């Protein structure tokens, strides 16, 4: 059960990182235009 909880945390972290990357991409795009 403990490892499962850890896995869940990692999944959330991955999702958060993806969101951040997307935000940066959007920022770059707006800067270019």
From TrEMBL:
Residues 1-33 are annotated as: Disordered. This is AURKAIP1/COX24 domain-containing protein.
């Amino acid at each position: 059960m403990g490892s499962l909880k850890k896995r869940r945390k990692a999944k959330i972290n991955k999702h958060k990182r993806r969101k951040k990357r997307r935000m940066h991409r959007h920022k770059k795009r707006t800067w270019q235009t």
